[in-house]
Design the sequence.
């Protein structure tokens, strides 16, 4: 589904590569977890795959489409849930979803029904006509998630979708993502929560200093690391204990 | 077209819910218009109120000098101060009391009329042959 070939990114004023020669294949129907410390290159990778930033070198294909010559087609194929809330605070949840869905060319009764169904599915039906600025972090995350899947993308990129979210909202989000995956959507998501990734992902990759240091199913990673019983232990064994502070 | 329409709708929603922004949107141009009008009005008043004093020595006392005098008064740019003596007028300008003196010489009207008559007669005689 996603073929990444020697993908690298170096920002203009940065001294080091944020992502360096990354090779990775993600199959159709996978829930792939990208794990890594702050500044490891997770968001950079997702931003490049979503077409938000240009790679310095290397290439990638999504569903057989090369990013350089099929930008429009790729945008229809993918959905993005960014780390920050991408919603208009003074509009209601329904208005936000109506606007973002319309930007993908959706219209008509089916589209409006789809908004309502998703709001019900994620427990937001009572708040459909309330302004986003009055919403809690978890509610905003759920609206953000709906906004990114209204056009039924084949691949969904989520950048830390459960950060700052309570347990109840997190459970609803994870269950909903599992449902999406069952219906055929490939999911690529980044997270700091290793236990969440262990139960949720079919495969995980650990990124450190812009390079993929480890790849496999959560079970495989634990089995392959001598003495490790938890994902955190694998993570620390692969990335070390040094702090990752960048400015 | 649908995208454009929905974007316009979204902008309208955002604008109508931001009363502060809406007020600024209309009040700022209004404030600008008022400020510029006041500045221009002030400049115009300054020009109108400050007249340039000039001396007028009318030795002609004829219709031409009357016409010159009237036009200068009507222009409202000058303050006309009448002076009887040409020598006094020259002294006052040289001293720097006045920037300018207009001297209309004696028999200006008569001389001009005679000159015109001469020119007309000469032109007619040329036509007649």
Sequence:
């Amino acid at each position: 589904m996603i073929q990444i070939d020697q993908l690298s990114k170096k920002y203009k004023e940065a001294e080091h590569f944020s992502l360096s020669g990354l090779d990775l294949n993600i199959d159709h129907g996978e829930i792939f977890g990208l794990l890594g410390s702050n500044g490891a290159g997770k968001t950079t990778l997702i931003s490049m795959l979503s077409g938000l930033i240009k790679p310095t070198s290397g290439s990638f294909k999504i569903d057989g489409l090369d990013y350089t010559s099929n930008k429009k087609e790729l945008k229809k194929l993918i959905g993005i849930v960014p780390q920050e809330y991408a919603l208009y605070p003074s509009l209601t949840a329904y208005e936000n979803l109506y606007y973002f869905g319309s930007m993908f060319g959706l219209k008509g009764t089916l589209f409006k029904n789809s908004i309502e169904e998703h709001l019900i599915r994620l427990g937001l039906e009572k708040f459909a006509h309330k302004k986003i600025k009055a919403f809690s972090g978890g509610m905003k995350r759920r609206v953000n998630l709906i906004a990114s899947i209204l056009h039924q993308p084949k691949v969904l990129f989520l950048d830390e979708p459960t950060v700052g979210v309570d347990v109840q909202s997190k459970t609803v989000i994870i269950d909903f993502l599992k449902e999406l995956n069952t219906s055929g959507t490939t999911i690529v998501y980044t997270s700091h929560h290793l236990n969440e990734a262990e139960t949720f992902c079919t495969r995980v990759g650990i990124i450190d200093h812009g390079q993929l240091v480890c790849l496999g199913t959560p079970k495989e990673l634990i089995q392959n690391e001598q003495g490790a019983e938890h994902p955190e232990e694998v993570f620390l064994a692969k990335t070390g204990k040094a702090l990752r502070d960048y400015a | 077209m649908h995208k454009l329409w929905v974007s316009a709708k979204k902008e309208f929603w955002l604008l109508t819910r931001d009363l502060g922004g809406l007020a600024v949107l209309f009040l700022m141009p209004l404030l600008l218009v008022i400020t510029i009008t006041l500045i221009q009005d002030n400049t115009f008043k300054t020009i109108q109120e400050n007249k340039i004093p000039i001396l007028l020595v009318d030795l002609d006392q004829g219709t031409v000098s009357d016409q010159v005098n009237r036009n200068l008064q009507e222009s409202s740019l000058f303050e006309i101060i009448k002076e009887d003596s040409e020598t006094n007028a020259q002294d006052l300008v040289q001293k720097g009391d006045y920037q300018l003196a207009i001297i209309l010489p004696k028999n200006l009207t008569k001389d001009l009329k005679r000159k015109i008559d001469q020119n007309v007669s000469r032109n007619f005689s040329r036509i007649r042959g």
Notes: The first helix of chain A runs from residue 42 to 49. The mean pLDDT of chain A is 85. Chain A has nine helices and ten strands. Residues 2-239 of chain A form a domain with the Rossmann fold fold (CATH 3.40.50.300).
